[in-house]
Design brief:
The chain has three domains: about 120 residues, Schlafen, AAA domain (Methyltransferase, Cobalt-precorrin-4 Transmethylase, Domain 2, 2-Layer Sandwich); about 70 residues, no CATH class; about 170 residues, Heat Shock Protein 90 (2-Layer Sandwich). The strands form five sheets. The protein has a six-stranded mixed beta sheet with strand order 10-9-13-14-16-15, covered by helices on one side. The protein has a four-stranded mixed beta sheet with strand order 1-2-5-4, sandwiched between helices. The protein has a two-stranded antiparallel ribbon with strand order 3-6. The chain is built from 13 helices and 16 strands. The chain is globular and about 85 Å long. The protein is an alpha+beta fold. Helix content is about 35%, strand content about 20%. Helix 2 links the parallel strand 1 and strand 2.
């Protein structure tokens, strides 16, 4: 699309008009917002209505914009400028790519993002997601400032060390050493991190309300049908997973066979596949979103809803072939790995697909959108 067509289209998510007499701070805000979001163009010499008014000195303006991108944006942002003559008037087109050093801020310390046809300050949640997507911060390693060291169940942590790491600790200094090295507390302040709270707090949901799993059983095949039962599973992650297992055993059909004179249970969906889907949700969900994981049991299927869109570069197709192993929550994943609840191969989705295909001769469905990732496992309908 040429510049005249862009102007005709009007300001939008990737386009902003500016007069040359706008102040430097406003230019910096717009450059930062494009770099933090999805890139875009600034047309200088066009007013808000789309009228071409031109610029007085192209070279002087370009030098000024370069200086703003270099000295009023942190870190400095690379831009590309060109001048175009339209209707006998010169305008400057400033192209800003989505930055690879996000998040960017203005010299005054403010972070901006693009929203519709304007720039605005980033919310805390948006900023955290930008940090996460650029891998400059992992949310599961952040300390929770409303929690204290005393909120941790140290006996549970000692059990973890002894049974999964084969380490016995004998004094508080050793305990703090291992807690810090597993990123479960902040070393200087001893404040527990998100992972420390989820795995080892006496009451994890007191600090992380979204760190629970909500389960529901529906009479029919639609979420609007009668709800037969709901449960909110809370506690430490290990306890939640045990309760999830019990929930599946109570809500799914179970066929009893006799083998070698002993009864043998066979659930309609392999429990291993269901556990894998739930553990993956715990390991990879977006904890900046204040929503629980949901398990919905319908008459014809089971759905596991994990809050947040897929991490950068991950697609459903790449997951199906085991080609994705991008960690959004490496500390949580590491503890699950130590507890032998996940593998370090990125093969969980392939395992789910294979087990369901072998057992039911049906396909697992995956749905990804901006708000959540859903695994849909068919039931054996008789």
């Amino acid at each position: 699309m040429n510049i005249a067509d862009l102007i005709q289209q009007g300001e939008g998510y990737h386009l902003e008009f500016k007069r040359e007499d706008e102040n430097n701070d406003d230019f910096a805000k717009t450059i930062v917002s494009f770099a933090n979001t999805d890139g875009g163009k600034i047309l200088i010499g066009v007013d808000d209505s789309g009228k071409i008014i031109g610029v007085s000195d192209v070279d002087k303006l370009m030098l000024r914009i370069d200086d703003i991108a270099l000295n009023r944006c942190e870190p400095p942002i690379s831009i590309f400028q060109e001048s175009i003559n339209i209707e006998g008037k010169n305008i400057v087109v400033v192209s800003v790519d989505k930055g690879n050093q996000r998040p960017y801020k203005t010299k005054s310390g403010q972070y901006y993002v693009r929203s519709s046809n304007r720039c605005r300050q980033a919310t805390r949640e948006e900023l955290l997601r930008i940090f996460q997507s650029s891998k400059s911060l992992f949310y599961d390693e952040l300390p929770l400032n409303n929690a204290q060291y005393e909120d941790l169940d140290i006996s549970a942590f000692k059990y973890f060390l002894k049974n999964y790491i084969d380490i016995e600790v004998h004094n508080e200094e050793e305990i703090i050493h291992y807690l810090a090295n597993f990123h479960l507390i902040e070393k200087e302040t001893l404040v527990p991190t998100l992972t420390g709270i989820l795995f080892f707090a006496f009451e994890p949901q007191k600090f992380v309300s979204e760190g629970r799993i909500v389960c529901a059983i529906f009479e029919g095949t639609d979420i609007g049908d009668t709800v037969l039962e709901t449960k909110s599973l809370t506690g430490k992650i290990f306890d939640i997973l045990q309760n999830v297992d019990s929930f599946f055993k109570l809500s799914l059909k179970n066929k009893h066979n006799v083998k070698d004179f002993l009864p043998e249970s066979e659930f309609e969906i392999p429990l291993t596949a269901l556990r894998e889907a739930v553990v993956n949700a715990i390991a990879h969900r977006d904890y900046t979103i204040n929503a629980p994981i949901r398990i919905l049991v319908f008459a014809n299927r089971v759905e596991i809803h994990s809050p947040g869109k897929l991490p950068n570069t991950v697609t459903i197709d790449s997951m199906k072939i085991g080609g994705s192993h991008v960690l959004r929550n490496p500390t949580i994943y590491n503890l699950l790995l130590k507890m032998k609840m996940v593998t370090d191969l990125g093969s969980g989705v392939r395992r789910i697909i294979k087990l369901v295909k072998q057992h039911l001769n049906k396909d697992v469905e995956f749905v990804a959108n901006e708000n959540e990732f859903v695994v849909i496992i068919p039931r054996s309908v008789e």
